[in-house]
Amino acid sequence: MQLNYHILDVFTQTQMQGNPLAVVLKADHLKTWMMQKIANEFYLSETIFLSEPKAGRNTAGVRIFTPETELPFAGHPLIGAAVLLGLTSRSSAIRLEAQIGVVTCVMDRINRRCGQARFRLSELPKKVRDAPDRDKIAHTLGLKSEQIGFCDFAPSCYSAGVEYVLVPVQNSEALSSIELEKRKWSEVYGADDVAIYVFCPSENNSETDFCARMFDLTLPRIEDPATGSAAAALIGLIADTAKETSLQKSYFVEQGVDMGRPSLMEMQVRKENDVLIHAGIGGKAVLVGNGVLDLEWHDML
Questions:
Q1: How far apart are CA 262 and CA 19, in angstroms?
Q2: What sections of the sequence does the record tag as coiled-coil (predicted)?
């Protein structure tokens, strides 16, 4: 069996930056275990598989896998797939059938290998539980307790389809100095596969509002250079923390700097009468390469 694939760098317009993504085309006949093996072979933070849509008005069906498991939602695979499909079809409206529902992306072409996509979240972010004690969080990050939190932001657990422990820290110095204490992870967070999104106010870049790092012990590199689903969860905390009862604004978060893969994500927030009514994620993606998988599945059984 031969399968065409593309590699993109997402949440950047510069190759070898952002978060790399594999997009496998015409995956209709692949079984779940096959997709999981392919995702493990690429060993990127996520691989997205495209198939024919169930509804004719949609562009493609999608399934998203890490090297270890399938995800119902992830931002950088959806952005990358939307840019790829927009560039190849010359369409600006890309409708993707994901596990969380149909995601409609608006894609703007930048050049022949780069585009920018935005999509509205099918599931608005919400607080799902209280965060662990800040002293214990600080210990797992190798920080002091007083470095946790800034302004009105405090540790919280939010989800827009994937749950994150959101941890605000004082400044970029604290963010860059994180050293994980992995042995305490399960004890503090309840499991080893809990994802932590640490963020601080941006200090030196007028184009960004926050800087962030995402840690997940199940990821190939433990740290992720750009995490759309985490930015989506952060929208919920931003909306709940904002003093304004009515708000319509785009915030920008930079991630991946400490990994040498800087990324930039847009977070769209709209509140009316102190209620979040719209949340969206946006970013750029650039084509890096393509190839063909030549697989003989009977050898793997």
A1: 9
A2: none
- CA–CA dist 199, 267 (Å, integer): 14
| Backbone φ/ψ region at 211: left (φ over 0), alpha (ψ -120 to 50), beta | beta
Q: What's the one-letter identity of residue 274?
A: D
Q: Does residue 147 share a domain with residue 117?
A: no
Q: What confidence score (pLDDT) does residue 300 get?
A: 63
Round to whole Å and give the CA distance between 129 and 104: 29
pLDDT at residue 32 is higher than 60: yes
* Cβ–Cβ under 8 Å, residues 21 and 80: yes
* Domain membership flag for residue 97: yes
116 and 166 together in one domain: no
46 in active site: yes
**Active-site position among 46, 97, 223, 266:** 46
Residues 223-235: what's their mean pLDDT? Answer: 97
Residue 84 and residue 112: Cα distance in Å, rounded?
10
Residue 163 maps to a domain: yes
Please give the DSSP secondary-structure letter assigned to residue 245: S
| 298 Rama sector, left if φ>0, alpha if ψ -120 to 50, beta otherwise | alpha
* Same-domain check for residues 152 and 201: yes
Judged against a pLDDT cut of 90, whether residue 297 lies above it is answered with no
Please state, in angstroms and as integers, the Cα–Cα distance from residue 56 to each residue in 50, 60, 65, 95, 228, following that order. Answer: 15, 9, 24, 10, 27
pLDDT tens digits, residue range 267-289?
999 999 999 999 999 999 999 99
Query: Are the CB atoms for 237 and 166 separated by under 8 Å?
Result: yes
Residues spanned by the domain of 103 = 2-121+286-294
Q: What would the pLDDT profile of 177-212 be if each residue is shown by its tens digit?
A: 999 999 989 999 999 889 999 999 998 777 899 999
Q: Which two tokens stand for residue 40?
A: 């493990």
